């Protein structure tokens, strides 16, 4: 008897483009939500677009958080209960969006994602990544009911946030390879649709890397569409597997070793150069990954990330302990192998 079943959760409305922020309330009313909106934001996004969001709603409440943490999540839940929030509107980068994503789960209400930075694919996904002490929790949550990504705002954001988003997408290359490897070696469930979508998204971005340029609103358009596509791939898979492999383990480990270090996307990009080399050797596509990152202005070396060569090696040799996710790192790469891969690819 056929007894497979699956529940795929996706945003219902995705608005991307010039000045779509003004269409936020229209996108929300389309969702049949009721109750008071609670705007969850952080200082700079609030300054940039908070008033434009509030102007579109009757009696909106606002909570401003300054860090992504469990305390911030608690604070949003508290304010949400106090004001009787019917739904949350997350305005900002990953900090505001991930905090709202987690809080909306506890408040049992939906949330709308309004990114002000195209910095990673968490703006669309059903996963929250919250740091705690020297570790980071990657938690499953519901994805946004709608995404409203105004390319005018995104193009105005600091360029490194956009190159971080690009690198997070490019890393899907190696994430999919890790997923396929885990499928072959460990019988991990693999979704052809999700894997193909994720891989194609990365290939399209690499193919267009020379058209992604600072100050061009069209670049924000290309990047945010790729972030949406990557988020959809994760929703189809029901896990972050299509967008998070060994390069993400490397980045999560760096977060532990160097708190407040480089941007997530920049770390996974550098990780991808090395893990592609581990997958395919000297003739693999690690040069394409490196060159695409370089063309966009994303870091390709330890120095570019502002970390020491020793930290790169420590992260590479210990990253497999981060979580139960089989990747090319297997049960751990030796120090010699890590040094060889990082040196050959020019990362150290
Ligand atoms: N769910 C997922 O898959 C993932 C989630 N994350 C989470 O996301 C967080 C990192 O996300 P990220 O977006 O990089 O970080 P932030 O939300 O902290 O944003 C980065 C910086 O950019 C500022 N900023 C945001 N938008 C603009 C803008 N339009 N113009 C000028 N400045 C702006 C913020 O200001 P201010 O400080 O004033 O807010 C902040 O200083 C991490 O804390 C992590 O928890 C990371 C990776 C993956
Ligand atoms: O960053 C992500 C995908 O790009 C999410 O991955 P994690 O599940 O490793 O947090
Ligand atoms: Zn990522």
From TrEMBL:
<keyword id="KW-0521">NADP</keyword>
<feature type="binding site">
    <location>
        <position position="168"/>
    </location>
    <ligand>
        <name>glycerol</name>
    </ligand>
</feature>
<keyword id="KW-0963">Cytoplasm</keyword>
<dbReference type="GO" id="GO:0050492">
    <property type="term" value="F:glycerol-1-phosphate dehydrogenase [NAD(P)+] activity"/>
</dbReference>
<feature type="binding site">
    <location>
        <position position="252"/>
    </location>
    <ligand>
        <name>substrate</name>
    </ligand>
</feature>
<dbReference type="GO" id="GO:0006650">
    <property type="term" value="P:glycerophospholipid metabolic process"/>
</dbReference>
<keyword id="KW-0560">Oxidoreductase</keyword>
<comment type="function">
    <text>Catalyzes the NAD(P)H-dependent reduction of dihydroxyacetonephosphate (DHAP or glycerone phosphate) to glycerol 1-phosphate (G1P). The G1P thus generated is used as the glycerophosphate backbone of phospholipids in the cellular membranes of Archaea.</text>
</comment>
<keyword id="KW-0520">NAD</keyword>
<keyword id="KW-0443">Lipid metabolism</keyword>
<dbReference type="InterPro" id="IPR023002">
    <property type="entry name" value="G1P_dehydrogenase_arc"/>
</dbReference>
<dbReference type="InterPro" id="IPR016205">
    <property type="entry name" value="Glycerol_DH"/>
</dbReference>
<comment type="similarity">
    <text>Belongs to the glycerol-1-phosphate dehydrogenase family.</text>
</comment>
<feature type="binding site">
    <location>
        <position position="248"/>
    </location>
    <ligand>
        <name>Zn(2+)</name>
    </ligand>
</feature>
<feature type="binding site">
    <location>
        <position position="168"/>
    </location>
    <ligand>
        <name>Zn(2+)</name>
    </ligand>
</feature>
<keyword id="KW-0444">Lipid biosynthesis</keyword>
<feature type="binding site">
    <location>
        <position position="121"/>
    </location>
    <ligand>
        <name>glycerol</name>
    </ligand>
</feature>
<dbReference type="Pfam" id="PF13685">
    <property type="entry name" value="Fe-ADH_2"/>
</dbReference>
<feature type="binding site">
    <location>
        <position position="264"/>
    </location>
    <ligand>
        <name>glycerol</name>
    </ligand>
</feature>
<feature type="binding site">
    <location>
        <begin position="116"/>
        <end position="119"/>
    </location>
    <ligand>
        <name>NAD(+)</name>
    </ligand>
</feature>
<keyword id="KW-1208">Phospholipid metabolism</keyword>
<feature type="binding site">
    <location>
        <position position="121"/>
    </location>
    <ligand>
        <name>substrate</name>
    </ligand>
</feature>
<dbReference type="InterPro" id="IPR032837">
    <property type="entry name" value="G1PDH"/>
</dbReference>
<keyword id="KW-0594">Phospholipid biosynthesis</keyword>
<keyword id="KW-0862">Zinc</keyword>
<protein>
    <recommendedName>
        <fullName>Glycerol-1-phosphate dehydrogenase [NAD(P)+]</fullName>
        <ecNumber>1.1.1.261</ecNumber>
    </recommendedName>
</protein>
<comment type="pathway">
    <text>Membrane lipid metabolism; glycerophospholipid metabolism.</text>
</comment>
<dbReference type="GO" id="GO:0008654">
    <property type="term" value="P:phospholipid biosynthetic process"/>
</dbReference>
<feature type="binding site">
    <location>
        <position position="125"/>
    </location>
    <ligand>
        <name>NAD(+)</name>
    </ligand>
</feature>
<dbReference type="GO" id="GO:0046872">
    <property type="term" value="F:metal ion binding"/>
</dbReference>
<feature type="binding site">
    <location>
        <position position="168"/>
    </location>
    <ligand>
        <name>substrate</name>
    </ligand>
</feature>
<keyword id="KW-0479">Metal-binding</keyword>
<feature type="binding site">
    <location>
        <position position="264"/>
    </location>
    <ligand>
        <name>Zn(2+)</name>
    </ligand>
</feature>
<feature type="binding site">
    <location>
        <position position="248"/>
    </location>
    <ligand>
        <name>glycerol</name>
    </ligand>
</feature>
<dbReference type="GO" id="GO:0005737">
    <property type="term" value="C:cytoplasm"/>
</dbReference>
<feature type="binding site">
    <location>
        <begin position="94"/>
        <end position="98"/>
    </location>
    <ligand>
        <name>NAD(+)</name>
    </ligand>
</feature>
